[in-house]
Amino acid sequence: MRAKTRTALFVGLVLLILGGAALLGCRLGWLPAANAQDDTTQSSMILMDTVVDVRVDGPNSAALVERVFARMAELEALFSRFIPESEVSAINRGAGDWVQASPLTLDLIELGIEMGRLTDGAFDITIGAVLDLWGFGSDYRQVPDEEELRAALATVDYTKVEVDRKAGAVRIPEGSVLDLGGIAKGFIVSQGIAILRTARMDRALINAGGDISVVGRRPDGRPWRVGVQDPDQANQIRYILPLDDQSVVTSGDYQRYFTVDGVRYHHIIDPSTGYPARGLRSVTIVGADPAVCDAISTAVFVRGWEEGRALVERLPGVEAIVISDTDAWISPGLAQAVTTP
Ligand code: ADP
Ligand code: MG
Predict the structure, then answer these.
(1) 37 C-alpha to center of ligand 1: Å?
(2) What is the three-class DSSP state of 324?
(3) 117-137 b/e with 16+ CB inside 10 Å = b?
(4) What is the pLDDT of residues 292-340, one digit of tens each?
C-alpha cells in the first residue's frame, strides 16, 4: 500500500467529468478542486501513496467527505505493512503466533483468502517476502538471487493463514509476510462508499488513484465516464467506459517498476514463479465491490492473456478490459458500453 517511493500517483484510470474534447483537460481541472458549494463537496487527499478524491452531492456533504477521509486514513493505519504501528505490521512481526486484530482487519484478511481461493492462488496475500526481495516497498530495487527467491517463494501460501473470529486473532506461518497491497485500496474505498450509502447520498464518488467507485449517476443523469489509460502513454485514453453505481479498478505494469538491461520488472508477482507476471500490460475490472475488483485485477494480470480472460468469464458480475502489447479484449458484458475517444 504505502511504498516509500512514488513512481506514479496516477494509475490506469481517469475519471472523466466532461465530455468530448475536454477529456484530458478535465482530469487536470478536476483534481485540485476542493470546493464546497451548497450541497456538493469535492476534495482530495494523499492516502495509500496516491491521490484520493471524494465527491459527494447531498445534504451535509462537507461533513460526510470529512468522515470518509477520516475513515480511510484510519483504515490505512491498520492495513499498511509500511506503517510499523499498523495491525498488519504486528501480524507480520508475530508470524508463527496468534496476533489480535480488529474486526475490519479480519474482514480484509478473510476476503483476501477468499480471493486466493477464487483465483486458484493467482492472488496471494502472503506474497510479502517475495516483494521484499524485489525491493517493491523500498527505495532500492533489484533482481533477486535465484536461491533467495526460491526460499521466499516457499513462504507464500494464503491457505496457511488462519483467522479466529471468536478470539479476534490471526496467525500466519513463521517466515511468511502478509501484504495486502493488492486489495486494501479497494477495500478502503468500499468502506468509504459504505458510509456514503448509509447516509443515503444519491450521488457520490471515490477515486483512489484509479480505484474508482461511484454511487448513482452524474448530475446530468448520465452514467459517470471513466477513461482507461493507454499503457504506453500516460496522457492517452484508450477506452471510455460508463460507470453506473459500480466500481472499476486497473492493474498495470507501468505503475511501479524498474528496468535492468532493458527488461521491465514490475510489482505484480506471479506466485507460481516469484517473477513479475508476463504477458499483459493492463487489466481493468468492473464490478460491484471495489475490493473484489482490486484483487481480481491483480489476479487476471498474473494469469495472463488466455487464463486471465477465462477467469473473467467464469466469475459472475465481473467484466474486464484486458490489454496486452499486441491485443486487447473487452469482455462480452462490456462490449456494447465501451467506446473509444
Ligand atoms: P496498485 O496497488 O498499484 O493499484 P494492484 O492492485 O495490481 O496495483 O496491486 C499490486 C500490489 O499487490 C503490489 O504492490 C503488491 O503489494 C501486491 N501484489 C503483487 N503481486 C500480488 C499477488 N500475486 N497476489 C496478491 N497481491 C499481490
Ligand atoms: Mg489489485
Answers:
(1) 37
(2) coil
(3) ebbebbbbbbbbbbbbbbbbb
(4) 999 999 999 999 999 999 999 999 999 999 999 999 999 999 999 999 9
Tell the residue nearest (CA) to atom 12 of ligand 1: 182
Residue 91's H or E segment, with its range, is helix 87-93
What residues are paired with 57 via a beta bridge? Answer: 40, 203
Ligand nearest to the CA of 1: 1
| C-alpha distances out from residue 21 to 192, 208, 243, Å | 32, 24, 20
Nearest-angstrom CA–CA distance, 314 and 335: 17
Q: Report the C-alpha gap between 204 and 67 in whole angstroms.
A: 14
Q: What is the mean pLDDT of the chain?
A: 89
Q: Could you give the CA distance from residue 42 to residue 57 in angstroms, rounded to a whole number?
A: 9
Answering whether pTM is above 0.85, one says yes
223 residue type, one letter: P
234/12 Cα distance (integer angstroms): 8
CA of 185 to the centre of ligand 2 (A): 8
Domain residue limits, the chain: 223-340
Mutate to test the pocket of ligand 1, among 127, 159, 270, 284 (most ligand atoms within 8 A of CB): 127
For residue range 24-80, list pLDDT tens digits in order: 222 322 333 444 445 899 999 999 989 999 999 999 999 999 999 999 999 999 999
- For the Cβ of 253 lying below 6 angstroms from any atom of ligand 1, the answer is no
Separation of CA 243 and ligand 2 centre (Å): 19
223-340, superfamily in CATH? Answer: ApbE-like domains (3.10.520.10)
